[in-house]
Amino acid sequence: MEVRTSDLYEAAYYLERGCRLDAVETVKVEAAAPTCVFVLSEQDESFMVALAARWSRGHTDVNLHAFRSAYAQLSGYVHRMKRPKKSGGRS
C-alpha cells in the first residue's frame, strides 16, 4: 500500500514506523511555491491502514530519537528539492 503526503511530520511518522520512502516529488501549485510530496509504502496493507488510522486520530506513539532522525532526513530532501538549480554556464 502507498501513502502520498506533503506533511513532513506525517511522512516522518510513517518512516519511523518502518515504512519505505519510495520517492520525493516536487509538485508545482498555481501561484505558489512548489511543494514536496513524499511517497511511502508498506507491503502489509493492514499495517499501513492501521498507521493511517492512528495518525488521523492523533494516537501516535513514536521513538523520539528515531522520529527526529526521520524528520531530519526528510527535511534535507525538502531543502535540496527546493534549492534553485545552478546553471552550468557563466554570466
Can you give me a brief rundown of this structure?
The chain has 91 residues and is an alpha+beta fold. The chain has helices at residues 8-16, 45-57, 64-82, and strands at residues 2-5, 20-27, 35-41. Strand 2 and strand 3 form a beta hairpin.
Give the tags.
21% strand; single chain; 91 residues; 3 helices; alpha+beta; globular
Fold and architecture overview:
There is one protein chain. The protein is of the alpha+beta class. It has a single domain, classed as Alpha-Beta Plaits, CATH 3.30.70. 45% of the residues lie in helices and 21% in strands. It has three helices and three strands, in the order βαββαα. It has helices spanning 8-16, 45-57, 64-82, and strands at residues 2-5, 20-27, 35-41. The chain has a three-stranded antiparallel beta sheet. α1 (8-16) packs across α3 (64-82).
Q: How many strands appear in the DSSP assignment?
A: 3
Distance between the termini: 47 Å
**Order of strands side by side in the largest beta sheet?**
1-3-2
Q: What is the number of independent domains? A: 1
Task: Please provide the ordered H/E string of secondary-structure elements.
Answer: EHEEHH
Q: If classified by CATH, what would the architecture be? A: 2-Layer Sandwich
Structural class call reads: alpha+beta
Approximate helicity band: 40-55%
Q: Assign the CATH class.
A: Alpha Beta
- In the predicted model, the low-confidence regions spanning at least 5 consecutive residues are none
Q: Which shape, going by the Cα principal axes?
A: globular
Largest sheet: 3 strands, antiparallel
CATH topology: Alpha-Beta Plaits
Give the overall average pLDDT.
Answer: 90
Count of runs of 4 or more consecutive helical residues: 3
Q: β content, as a range?
A: 15-25%
